[in-house]
Design goal:
The complex is a heterodimer of chains A (264) and B (266).
Chain A: H1 2-41, H2 47-59, H3 62-84, H4 92-131, H5 134-140, H6 145-184, H7 188-197, H8 202-227, H9 232-263
Helix pairs in contact in A: 1-6, 1-8, 2-6, 3-4, 3-6, 4-6, 4-7, 4-8, 4-9, 6-8, 8-9
Chain B: E1 2-10, E2 14-23, E3 28-32, H1 39-45, E4 54-59, E5 62-63, H2 68-78, E6 79-82, H3 94-99, H4 106-110, H5 112-125, H6 130-133, H7 143-156, E7 161-165, H8 173-190, E8 193-197, H9 201-207, E9 210-215, E10 218-223, H10 225-230, H11 234-241, H12 245-265
Parallel strand pairs in B: 3-8, 3-9, 6-7, 7-8
Antiparallel strand pairs in B: 1-2, 1-4, 4-5, 9-10
Helix pairs in contact in B: 5-7, 11-12
The chains are: A mainly alpha (264), B alpha/beta (266).
């Protein structure tokens, strides 16, 4: 009995620590967002910096986003073709691919690409700046690191992620169409007929709304984790890893909240 | 003028335990002390990079911690901090790094030609050839050159106060002497107020108007280099004679024990 209660106490302590840690991070991200908003509304964020970040996040991520989108569309089409052949009209495959790509795979796979390519880099970059006193140097030179470093990255993320998701959706859909033709012989007209059959105009808005959410979550978390880094190179490595895990979990949880909130 | 008023700061242990010190206008003050004794923490409180639990810092009469954000921005405009490892911005060239030492918007108000002239002059003041280094990234510079670029960044804005955080740590003796000479020359020519945190006792005694010794968060000594050399305090003697602080502390404990025994026997 004593062993059970000791184990239970340890479990409760761990849960408590996790809850406190999560709350601290959520509060930190909230404060960072407020400071970015204030700097933006005051007109203090350099447009050139936003454009530079948008180029690095958006244009440089585009090839990988497109590759991921192609693979998502192809796999969805092939697996759907395997499931539907001989059971239901094949043109339904068009609807399955369209819905899967637009509602889910386009936004989520794009988010994962950005987490790996952009989020981890932001945390490592800012974390390194913290431990090498470059953030202190910015303060000492009268520059606000939130305005100079954080705001351009957060704004760029919110702007480019919906564009990337839109491109991923189109590329994934096209790849699915080509794969359907190649594997199960479904012609483009039938594929597109099926895609339109169960299409709702709301689906595109849903997809872009997810994209905006992910476009905020990824830079917000990565910036926060970078700016709270302590402990030299080891701290940078630790925070970068934690940041990636944090971003993945938050994207997945947010993704899971979308259907009950927006689809039912 | 800088006034440190009753500063208290602790991390896991107290690092500042009621430090009160005034640095006069145009004065060069060096702060010595064992590692981890709060020297850099003291320096960083001057421009609010570290916030103490108690106490205040006043720069030319303005409070760093109670004056508000605008007052702090005004203070930071006239104070420059030279970091231990220079803290140059990795993705910016030497030119852009040094230009960061000017107020924001200087590029617009001064124009490119004037900006280049000021940056080049600052680099020349620290014995760097602008033609050779302007377009280099910090990673392409030696340690000594990075320190001097950090110094150029501090000078370009013509500050009233410069704070040096271990300016010669990690440098070979030749480069260390070069940096010390630069600090002395800057102080002489510009009458800037300088606070230097350093482990270089010899350099500190040569270039400072006064020297302060910080030990376990408290000021153990404040005085001129001559007073430092002639002080009989064991810790000061240890620094003056460059013995270890542990040996000096042991001598202090043994002396206290002897005094106690002598007092008891009488």
């Amino acid at each position: 009995m004593r062993r059970v209660s000791a184990g239970l106490i340890r479990l409760l302590r761990a849960a408590g620590r996790t809850a406190v840690g999560f709350s601290a991070h959520a509060g930190g991200i909230g404060l960072l967002t407020a400071r970015v908003a204030r700097a933006t509304l005051a007109g203090g964020v350099a447009f050139a910096d936003v454009v530079k970040q948008a180029y690095e996040m958006g244009l440089q991520s585009l090839p990988l986003v497109m590759v991921t989108a192609v693979l998502s569309g192809v796999v969805t089409s092939q697996q759907g073709g395997y499931q539907f052949t001989g059971s239901i009209p094949l043109y339904v495959l068009g609807s399955v691919v369209a819905s899967s790509v637009v509602l889910e795979l386009g936004p989520v796979m794009t988010a994962f690409v950005l987490i790996g390519r952009v989020g981890a880099r932001i945390t490592a970059e800012l974390g390194t700046m913290v431990v090498s006193e470059q953030i202190d140097a910015l303060h000492s030179l009268g520059r606000d690191p939130v305005r100079v470093l954080a705001a351009p990255r957060l704004l760029a993320g919110i702007l480019v992620t919906p564009l990337l998701v839109g491109i991923a959706n189109m590329v994934g859909l096209f790849a699915g169409l080509v794969a359907a033709r190649a594997t199960v012989g479904l012609g483009p007209e039938s594929f597109l007929y099926g895609a339109r059959l169960f299409w709702h105009s709301w689906d595109l808005l849903y997809s872009i709304t997810k994209a905006f959410a992910f476009g905020f979550i990824i830079p917000a978390i990565s910036l926060h984790m970078g700016l709270i880094t302590r402990g030299g190179a080891e701290g940078v490595g630790r925070n970068t890893t934690t940041s990636v895990v944090f971003m993945i979990i938050t994207v997945l949880v947010t993704d899971a909240l979308f259907p009950p909130l927006f689809l039912n | 003028m800088i006034e440190y008023i009753g500063l208290h700061k602790r991390f896991d242990v107290p690092v500042l335990a009621g430090v009160t010190l005034t640095v006069g206008e145009g004065e060069t003050l060096s702060v010595l002390g064992p590692s981890g004794t709060g020297k850099s923490v003291l320096l960083k409180t001057t421009i609010g990079l570290i916030v103490p639990e108690r106490g205040d810092v006043r720069v030319d009469g303005d409070s760093v911690f109670t004056g508000g954000r605008r007052a702090l921005q005004t203070i930071r405009r006239h104070v420059r901090y030279v970091f231990q490892y220079a803290a140059l911005f990795d993705s910016l060239t030497v030119y852009d790094n040094v230009a960061m030492g000017l107020p924001e918007g200087a590029a617009r108000t001064l124009g490119r030609a004037e900006l280049l002239r000021r940056v080049s002059r600052s680099l020349e003041d620290v014995n760097l050839d602008p033609a050779l280094v302007l377009h280099k990234l910090p990673a392409e510079l030696s340690g000594g050159m990075r320190k001097r670029v950090g110094l150029a960044r501090a000078l370009v804005g013509e500050p009233r106060i410069i704070l040096y955080d271990e300016p010669v740590t990690g440098l070979d003796p030749v480069n260390a002497a070069t940096v010390n000479n630069l600090i002395t020359s800057i102080a002489e020519h510009t009458r800037v107020t300088s606070v230097i945190v350093t482990h270089d006792v010899e350099g500190a005694l040569e270039m400072s108007d006064r020297v302060a010794l910080l030990d376990h968060g408290r000021l153990r000594f404040v005085g001129t280099p001559e007073e430092f050399r002639s002080s009989q305090d064991p810790m000061v003697r240890a620094f003056a004679d460059r013995r270890t602080a542990a040996a000096a502390a042991l001598e202090l404990v043994e002396r206290d024990e002897d005094d106690t025994e002598n007092g008891a026997s009488e």
